[in-house]
Amino acid sequence: MILGLINPLTGTDDIWIVGDPWYRLIIFCLLAALLCTVVLGAIHMAGNQATRLLVMGCAFAAGLFYVLEFFIPPDAKSQEVSLWGVNLTQMSGIIGNANQVVAGFTFLLGVYNLVHIHGNNIRRLRKGWGYSLSFFIAFLAMTVSAFARDWQSFFDPKYDELKNTAGYQLWMPSWVNDVDPTHALMPHDIFSVLFEGFYRNMDATMFSILAFYIVSAAYRAFRIRSKEAAVLMITAVIMMMGQVPLGQAITAAIPKDGFWHGLRIEEISQFVLNTINGPVQRAIGFGLGLGALGMALRIWLSLERGTYFEETS
Amino acid sequence: MQPLPTRNWEDILGKIDRRLVYIGLFLFTLAPLVGRWALPLNTTEPTKMLKKAFDGLPQDKVVLIASDWDAGTQAESRPQLTAVVRYLLRKKLKFILFSVTTPTSPQLGQTVVERAIEAEGMKDTWQYGTHWANMGYRIANAPWLRNFARSIQDAMKNDWKGVPLAKLDVTRGVDKFGPEGQVSMLVDVTGSSSIDNWYAYLSPSKVTIGLACTGVMAPEQYPFLDSGQLSGLLTGMKGAAEFEQLTEQKGFALAAMAGQSFAHLYIFIMLVLGNLSVILGTMKKRARG
Amino acid sequence: MTQASTSTRKRGSDLATVEALCLAGLLVVAMALGWFFGAGYWRTAEYWSKFVAGRAIVYAFSAMILGQILFARRGGSAFIRRIPGLTAVDQTVGRATEMGRPITFSLGLGNVEIITLQALAIALHVIRMAIRFGTRVIVTCADPTVYAIADEAVREAFTAAGRPESHNLDDVRFLSDRQFAYASSAMGLILRERVASNYMFGRFFAESLILAEAGNQVGAIQVAGTPIITQIPFFVASCDYTIIGDEYYAATAYLTREPVLSGSLVGQDHCKMLILGLITLGVIMATVSAGLAQASPGLENDVSALVSSFEKLFTEAK
After folding, report:
1. Which residue of B18, B73, B220 is in closest CB contact with C230?
2. What ipTM describes this predicted complex?
């Protein structure tokens, strides 16, 4: 009974649909709200030391769930982990969804932060306030056009099925919501113009800027001022030229199947990738994995002294 | 009147204005594209391995394509996905598209597949739902990934337009990975680190995994190629071009490789110029004693 | 190895060893319980290679790290070699103070995960130092949840330093959760504010060079660190200091010199020794197996079965 009450329910659970007592979900929600209120109230009202202990306790409890879910070997057939009748694997899905919900709410905080900063820039006419204005124009244009286009699909469950049939009333004109199947690849509506025409190309442009920056960074940084720098530059040149036809042409005279084929630039670059780069990547990977494990343990057990849990002396 | 500062070769070569450097790159990349210069290309082993992996796939199973790229990496990812899809079409292998990285990926993937079907002249014979499908975007948190590895039907439930998997011929009954399952291979066309998910969750099922990633990501993947967790790899646009050449496609990547080639040459020239300034400087210092 | 040798101290080491042994004992007891009281499949080799071995290895690593943390808490100490990028923190804050310009700290594209939390820990260290000199640090985030946490952590840092009134709400900024929108926004910020120092710690992808070049254009001192190995070359080419590989996770230990964190590093090094041992064992077994296949074909099957069981421990773990 108690387990049933604390076991979370979601709208898609079969047990709920086939006539589980309606009050179970409400009791569950109330209990959850009560628990949150108690914990938050305690954190705010308690003294520094008690607050710290409470936060440490919450961090430990939250982490313990995933620790148990990971370390307990699962059932061989279902591959799900259970502990005293509670299916931890299924519950982790629900907790994952809860995390997404929390993340969704924090998105509002992010938007608030953007509006606050850019609003202030415009209000005080700070240097570059025009950019802040362009933020508001872009933000509103994308939001309004996307909502206007999809509005009908939120309320009419048969929208997707019927949108192209004659006689079906569309709420928005075609320049807001173009459902013409011949325009499937590029709808002629305002959102597509903004998304396909502006956003995608601006995104790709930002990525392409990288190419220019790589050249200027390489030109500035790859100068042979020491032995190490020489090794770095020679390897970079081999890799670069080994990857493209023009570079490969340098050693094209060496027969592919001959004794000296290993001296072809593409062969050398593959050797560097496979034999030198591969093991190095693995070694760094081991170190990083263990570093992440150490950090995770420290955060879980509130041992990250000097940064999160205690002011350094 | 102050005399104008004299600039020697060391300074001229060593401190070229970055805007001039950018213009140079632009011209070096543009010229071969406008002139449609074609260059011969060597095919590397990882690309051959991917083709070999496709060639060994059974007709009665499906290929899952994780289309995990967005507009940012489209220069590399789009030709890769196009080349892979066109080859699958030629081999008459059914495939299912899905995305876990960005919500915009499914639309981009859909467009690429539709255009590839058109390019292969299979518009009337290769139908959505029967031969291929798009599952849309899923948030790949750990529970979902574990579920996905255990049961595709359970994790996916419906396609990107909300049609249940049981109603689509291509997805009906597709549930498990690996030799005993209905999915013969997973190919990840990605501009991010989504492949790590498949190593962790799908490798134990022994499903064949292929990867088409951006050029920057490739060095990190070689250990997996070596260990057999990866059955083939396309490295950036070069990988797409090699695959096009290997499978005799006339695609965008092969045409664009000349531009990339000349861009590399340009970087090489810039490196030489930068280092010439260092050498000249050192010589001058030595001469002064 | 990132962190070099430990100078062992007797004090407290006995107790820590006992505690570490207790952790290991717990694993053995748990496994034995599973063996005797678990379902029938517990007694199959396939189940152990698939579901038990991998977990046992991670547990062993965790126990080794925790064991060393416990040892360090009881007085053990560790030597951490110099990490140039982190010794530059004083220099970067000092320079910003002299020039009267702000510092930017980018937390990368990660969500709330270990990489980002480590980046935030480093950011807090820089911010605490900057508060003392009255220098502004602008923290930029690409994830709204990270923004919420960073905002709270920075606020607390100001309160703990006794200067809550100096905390500027606009100094922790959520820019965008789209990669290149974030990059362009952070780049604009660096150029407009003409920052004196630029920090980039966290999960970075293609935007790494965009940010680093922006910092370079305004002549900022740049310190960067990321566990995303593919981005290291870009940082090396355009930053003054780059934190490479597992130095990233050693950063807080280096900056704070807290024994707990140093102990964790030593534990990680011990784990690496174990991995090295396992690799060596694997190499020897594979070599012997290959050699025997040629020398005495009779023995080949037994040895190759042993080698494949060993391999399965690492390839089939779920």
Report:
1. B220
2. 0.84
